[in-house]
Write a structure and sequence with these properties.
The complex is a heterotrimer of chains A (about 325), B (about 550) and C (about 325).
Chain A: E1 4-13, E2 16-26, E3 31-35, H1 42-50, E4 57-62, E5 65-66, E6 77-80, H2 92-102, H3 107-120, H4 136-148, E7 154-158, H5 166-183, E8 186-191, H6 194-200, E9 203-208, E10 211-216, H7 218-223, H8 228-234, E11 238-240, E12 243-245, E13 250-252, E14 262-272, E15 276-283, E16 288-294, E17 306-311
Parallel strand pairs in A: 3-8, 3-9, 6-7, 7-8
Antiparallel strand pairs in A: 1-2, 1-4, 4-5, 9-10, 11-12, 13-17, 14-15, 14-17, 15-16
Helix pairs in contact in A: 2-3, 2-4, 3-4
Chain B: H1 10-38, H2 50-56, H3 59-92, H4 98-105, H5 113-124, H6 129-136, H7 147-158, H8 160-172, H9 175-183, H10 188-217, H11 220-225, H12 232-241, H13 248-275, H14 293-310, H15 312-321, E1 323-326, E2 329-334, H16 337-345, H17 347-377, H18 381-391, H19 398-408, H20 421-445, H21 448-456, H22 461-489, H23 495-498, H24 506-515, H25 519-550
Antiparallel strand pairs in B: 1-2
Helix pairs in contact in B: 1-13, 1-17, 1-18, 1-19, 3-7, 3-8, 3-10, 3-14, 5-15, 8-10, 9-10, 10-13, 12-13, 15-25, 16-25, 17-18, 17-20, 17-22, 17-24, 19-20, 20-22, 21-22, 22-25, 24-25
Chain C: H1 2-17, E1 28-33, H2 37-51, E2 54-59, H3 62-71, E3 80-85, H4 86-91, E4 96-97, E5 119-131, E6 156-159, H5 165-177, H6 181-194, E7 195-198, H7 201-210, E8 215-219, H8 222-228, E9 233-236, E10 244-252, H9 258-268, H10 271-281, E11 284-285, H11 312-317, H12 319-333
Parallel strand pairs in C: 1-2, 1-3, 6-7, 6-8
Antiparallel strand pairs in C: 3-10, 4-10, 5-8, 5-9, 5-10, 5-11
The chains are: A alpha+beta (about 325), B mainly alpha (about 550), C alpha/beta (about 325).
């Protein structure tokens, strides 16, 4: 098991600085996510680690071993791709065995490890099937089994869930997280979905324009965004003159502890989402404040109602 | 600082370097020899464009250029007009016997065009069997000679070049695009014109380009049918190998002009296609349309009529080969004497044909597939250059390349004349563009992530190429292999310049027999070639079906 | 997949067995010939049967053969050049090795080189072929002058002189015969208006034999050959005169098998061999000791025909310009 050290990694495509001097240390066994909008450089950074993208400057080490100068196939990496990249010309078992065969594993040992890996992703008994017989979720499990079975030093995930439907995404991300923790393999995970990032990661690096915007644990980035970009990317944010305020830091004044500062206005929009209700309130100056409350049957909010909100002053984040 | 190649680029760089080396030595160098002959004065010493001025100032050769271009354009248009409905019917309409039609449609490629032309004269010449029959029942039919006949023969022999890619394109159209158009209120007919046809247009044009270039360089058909209309490829052939006064500088000029014309068309097509690349991400073939009985019958009749009409020369040759020839004169009696004569003295040429076609088809695959890999997977100026050079043989007539080889490899450190490999190499170079094109088409459809997955699992790029890409491309590689094999087996224009001694091929036997008036030997050889080339086609169809079912 | 790989391997094995056999220790001779295959096959088979020497033929038009010879002069691959015209033999003398054939004395001096660098085999007379099915025998032309009649427009097949030595001889002979210079060319121009200029001489006699054209200007042998095969073809020996174009054989200098080459030169001009060739392919021999009237084809003796003088060397020297002039003429008269 290995930590990953990235120092000064940079890469320019034409005039675009895709990765612009990134320094990063990922701990041994850590589940680390690169998060950001498309074009922020997260995928390029991941491909640098995998060996599919050359560095213009800087270096990458697994532990003390420098790997950015090694050919990709010698880096000992397990990678899971957005569109699965399951080999259509091999069976499920053939796919999983592929990397083992490259490592000269053969015979009973090969069969045993393939079976174990398939069991691990709940595909026991699927070995003889062909990829075109499987669903998207099953294909992604094959891809994960294939990456895990070689017991790589590092696992890389390139938006592995973005081709799956919403429900499957949620259950798969939990599975991935669980697998990674049980095996203890250092993982780097790329996604543009901040909720997914928060749910799986030990730490997140938020990227923008090829640079690291903020690195930290999910809660830290969510609660203490270091920038306006970070604040907005991690979730709905009210940018007030006194700082940034998450919707859940607001309550109806009537339900809030005394002493919380108040804001008054009119209900502009109500959205009932089940456990929570989102409310947009137009303030006197015309600005909109977004609030979110846990569902409360006794409460009735209608568009146009005058309403008073209060907020927790401790949850106001001052942005630079 | 040393020059370092990024490790993930090493395989493409090595392949690319080998590709440049191969094409440089066996394409550019021989072409340079032809070119230099065209720009040297009579003594072969001073550089001059006088040869060009001389040729282009002669009305005879200007006429040849005009005739060639007009016939080429007309034949391309008629071929497209005939093939596109055929392709549509075979891809989208309920036509009975589709598999048979498609198999029969590839057959005209098997017969050397000069043999087709010979058969057509016997059928449709002034004294042809059909001509006389038509005249007897009062239908005045002039003759097959001249531009009209040449265009007809080209249309009937070259249409598979348009049909096959267009049919594939019709099958690859994402049906949801059509559905979208219809949901927006477009009638099925309008949808066909405004949505479907534009999507398959690149495939039609790519096929049309092949037809056009083939008409430029083909000399077998106009040789027989043009009578006294000057045609460029024929005049170039006469100047190269003319019996009386071979004139390498004028021939060089014609060769270079021929290459320039073809290259120009090629460039126009590339520019046009690069600006419209329609991605069609169809997962499954679009459904067969439900049509009325009338249309179904019409489509069926049309498909069978076209395919069978194109095969008339084919049948004629087979029938003729079983007839009695006294000397050069045909007598309508059944006879096996032609085959006896053939097997008596032409077994060796038959073996040579099989051997050369096999070696060259292997060579084409080994050169073309890796080059396709580089040009599809690497974006760089050098890769584009390699692509252009690998496409160049499209534009080079067989005769021209062959003469370049003779001039370039008859002395010095690499001597090829007199042996079998000169033919294998020329065939290989000539067919490389076909392999590069068909392989890149497949490679474009293979997700690069598959290769990355393999590499990340510990296979080197080379191993990945062999273990993932080659198996995925196998169907395409095999069908390309067979198509190459078949077209090489019927090649004449380069062979007739290059063969020597014991290395003559079956097409040379036919050519020489027709020269001497030995129509019997020629038709028996042609029939044998037909049977021999149908074997790999049949094998291919079986293999492909198995492959598609298995994977 | 597995079975398919095996099948491909099996296919490869089959193909491998088809490889042409290994090297032979047999004696051989490499012959560059521009004769057509019927003649080649006949003579080579007989030669091999008699001498045991295998023949490796390289068959191509005489232009190609000569070009090859010139290209290979530093490293000749052939031993014999056969079936090319007197003028080509004459202009490429430097490429040949002298050999005094055993049949030398049976052949008139005008048909052999004084220094024995080449020797003639057969003579081609320029004739007019007529298809008597389309054009009754008695309605045909008697000679060249008759061909100028506009009624023949588009009915006479001729070969492009750029691709046929005999066609070149025909045109230039007629220029001389019709008064030479501008006067001769004027009449030739009139003739060209009537001609269909085809790309190769075989198309002319095939065309007349199969009835595509009623008339054709051709070499002598084609007439009896098609007639013997049963085609309605009549050979017209022009009353206003013709010429005999010679074809011959030479030993290539520094060829790999000189002894075998000499054996072939002797063989191909032997009296019995010439008789065999005449019977099968109607080639008129250069030897004067065969009685043509008793042989098939019914070819008249040279002495019974009006033979014209022809400046072969002179027209050979002017070949390039003359061919260009003819090209322009073709274009003008279409």
């Amino acid at each position: 098991m290995t930590g990953i050290v990235i120092e000064g990694a940079a890469r320019t495509f034409g005039t675009v600085r895709a990765v612009d001097g990134v320094d990063l240390t990922v701990g041994d066994g850590e589940f680390f996510t690169l998060l950001g909008p498309s074009g922020c450089g997260k995928t390029t950074l991941l491909r640098m680690i995998a060996g599919f993208c050359e560095l213009d400057a800087g270096q990458i080490r697994f532990g003390t071993r420098r790997i950015d100068t090694l050919p990709a196939h010698t880096r000992d990496i397990g990678m899971v791709f957005q569109n699965y990249a399951v080999f259509p010309n091999l069976t499920v078992a053939g796919n999983v065995a592929y990397g083992l065969k490259a490592r000269k594993v053969a015979g009973a040992e090969l069969a045993k490890r393939v079976e174990e890996a398939l069991a691990l992703v709940q595909l026991a008994g699927y070995g003889e099937r062909w990829p075109h017989q499987l669903s998207g979720g099953q294909l992604q499990r094959v891809a994960i089994a294939r990456a895990l079975v070689i017991r790589p030093q590092v696992l890389l995930f390139d938006e592995p869930l973005s081709n799956l439907d919403a429900r499957l995404r949620v259950s798969m991300r939990a599975e991935i997280r669980e697998l990674q923790k049980s095996l203890g393999i250092t993982a780097i995970y790329v996604t543009h979905d901040q909720e997914e990032a928060m749910s799986v990661s030990d730490r997140i690096a938020l990227m923008q324009s090829g640079k690291l915007e903020q690195v930290g644990a999910p809660a830290e980035i969510y609660r203490k965004p270091a920038s306006r970009f970070a604040a907005e990317f991690m979730g709905t944010t009210n940018l007030m003159p006194f700082g940034a305020l998450r919707p859940e830091a607001l309550r109806l004044a009537a339900e809030a502890p005394a002493g919380w500062p108040r804001l008054e206005g009119q209900v502009a929009h109500v959205e009932m989402l089940g456990p929570i209700t989102r409310v947009d309130v137009r303030l006197g100056d015309g600005g909109i404040v977004r609030a979110a409350f846990l569902d409360e049957p006794a409460r009735a909010l209608r568009m146009g109602d005058a309403v008073a909100l209060a907020y927790d002053p401790a949850r106001v984040v001052a942005l630079p | 600082m040393t020059l370092s190649i990024p490790h993930q680029q090493r395989l493409p760089v090595v392949i690319g370097a080998l590709g440049f080396l191969f094409l440089g030595l066996f394409l550019l160098y021989p072409l340079f020899s032809v070119f230099s002959a065209s720009v040297l004065d009579g003594e072969g010493e001073k550089f001059t464009f006088a040869n060009y001025v001389k040729i282009l100032s002669r009305p005879f050769y200007r006429g040849a250029v005009t005739n060639t271009l007009l016939i080429g354009v007309a034949a391309t248009c008629t071929t497209i007009l005939m093939s596109v409905p055929l392709a549509f019917a075979l891809a989208r309409l309920p036509v009975p016997g589709k598999a048979a039609i498609i198999a029969l449609a590839a057959m005209p490629l098997v017969l050397p065009s000069f043999v087709s032309a010979y058969a057509i004269v016997l059928l449709l010449g002034r004294a042809g069997i059909f001509t006389q029959g038509l005249n007897a029942i009062g239908i005045g039919f002039g003759s097959i000679y001249g531009a009209g006949g040449i265009i007809l023969v080209y249309t009937l022999t070259l249409y598979p070049y348009v049909l096959l890619p267009t049919m594939a394109a019709f099958k690859a159209v994402d049906v949801s695009v059509e559905e979208a158009a219809q949901s927006l209120g477009s009638s099925p007919r309008r949808t066909l014109w405004t949505v479907t046809l534009p999507i398959v247009l690149p495939a039609i044009l790519a096929g049309g380009l092949l037809v056009f270039i083939e008409t430029l360089e083909n000399f077998g058909v106009p040789f027989v049918l043009a009578e006294d209309m000057p045609i460029f490829a024929v005049e170039a052939f006469k100047l190269f190998v003319g019996e009386t006064a071979p004139n390498p500088s004028s021939a060089g000029v014609l060769g270079v002009l021929l290459i320039l014309m073809a290259s120009l068309v090629l460039l126009v097509q590339r520019r046009f296609l690069s600006r419209r690349r329609f991605a069609t991400g169809a997962r499954s073939a679009p459904p067969i349309l439900k049509v009325g009985l009338g249309l179904k019958v019409a489509a069926t009749v049309y498909c069978w009529a076209v395919v069978l009409l194109a095969l008339v020369p084919f049948f004629a040759i087979v029938v003729l080969s079983f007839m009695e020839f006294r000397g050069p004169v045909l007598h309508p009696n059944f006879s096996l004497a032609n085959f006896e004569a053939l097997f008596d003295r032409a077994m060796r040429p038959l073996m040579n044909t099989l051997l050369f076609a096999t070696l060259a088809a292997i060579g084409v695959t080994l050169v073309g597939v890796p080059i396709a890999y580089v040009v599809t997977r690497v974006r760089s100026a050098l890769a584009s250059l390699l692509d252009v050079i690998a496409t160049l043989p499209f534009a080079v007539a067989g005769t021209v390349l062959a003469i370049g080889f003779v001039v370039s490899f008859n002395s010095g450190w690499l001597i090829l004349t007199g042996g079998p490999f000169i033919m294998v190499l020329v065939y290989t170079v000539r067919k490389v563009p076909f392999a590069v094109r068909s392989s890149s088409a497949i490679l474009h459809q293979i997700d690069p992530a598959l290769e990355e997955a393999s590499i990340s699992l510990g296979r080197s790029p080379l191993q990945t190429f062999g273990r993932i890409l080659v198996p995925l491309m196998l169907g395409g590689i095999l069908s390309g292999f067979v198509l190459t094999w078949v077209t090489i087996a019927s090649e004449l224009s380069a062979t007739v310049v290059l063969y020597s001694g014991q290395w003559r091929t079956l097409t040379v036997v036919m050519f020489q027999a027709l020269e001497g008036g030995g129509g019997g030997l020629a038709t028996a050889a042609a029939s044998t070639l037909i049977i021999v080339t149908l074997v790999p086609i049949a094998l291919l169809y079986r293999l492909l079906r198995r492959y598609e079912l298995g994977a | 997949m597995g079975t398919m790989t095996r099948r491909i391997a099996a296919l490869g094995l089959v193909l491998a067995t088809l490889l042409p056999g290994g090297a032979q220790a047999q004696k051989k001779v490499v012959i560059y010939t521009s004769n057509e295959s019927t003649l080649n096959d006949l003579v080579f088979a007989a030669f091999t049967k008699e001498t045991g020497i295998a023949v490796e033929p390289v068959v191509a038009g005489s232009g190609v053969v000569i070009r090859r010879l010139q290209a290979e002069k530093d490293r000749p691959l052939g031993d014999i050049i056969w079936g090319v015209s007197r003028s080509l033999l004459q202009t490429n003398k430097a490429l040949f090795a002298p050999y005094a054939s055993k049949n030398k004395d049976a052949i008139p001096v005008e048909y052999r080189d004084p220094t024995d660098l080449w020797i003639g085999n057969n003579l081609h007379l320029l004739v007019i072929l007529q298809n008597t099915k389309i054009l009754p025998a008695d309605q045909g032309p008697k000679g060249w002058d008759d061909l100028l009649d506009p009624k023949w427009k588009g009915k006479i097949a001729f070969t492009d002189p750029a691709n046929s030595g005999s066609a070149y001889s025909t045109v230039t002979l007629l220029v001389d015969m019709w008064g030479g210079g501008d006067a001769g060319w004027k009449k030739v121009t009139a003739l060209f208006r009537n001609l269909k200029i085809l790309n190769r001489s075989s198309l002319v006699f095939q065309g007349v034999g199969n009835g595509e054209y009623p008339l054709g200007i051709s070499l002598e042998y084609a007439g009896p050959m098609w007639a013997a095969g049963g085609a309605p073809v009549k050979t017209i020996y022009p009353a206003d005169g013709t010429i005999a174009a010679m074809e011959g054989v030479a030993v290539i200098k520094n060829g790999p098998n000189p002894a075998e080459a000499q054996a072939f030169v002797d063989f191909v001009n032997r009296k019995d061999v010439r008789e065999m060739i005449l019977k099968a392919t109607f080639r008129r021999p250069t030897r004067t000791d065969l009685d043509l009237s008793t042989l098939p084809g019914g070819m008249p003796a040279l002495s019974s025909l009006k033979m014209l003088k022809y400046d072969e060397d002179g027209w050979g020297d002017k070949r390039k310009e003359t061919l260009e002039k003819i090209k322009d003429l073709i274009q003008e008269t279409r």
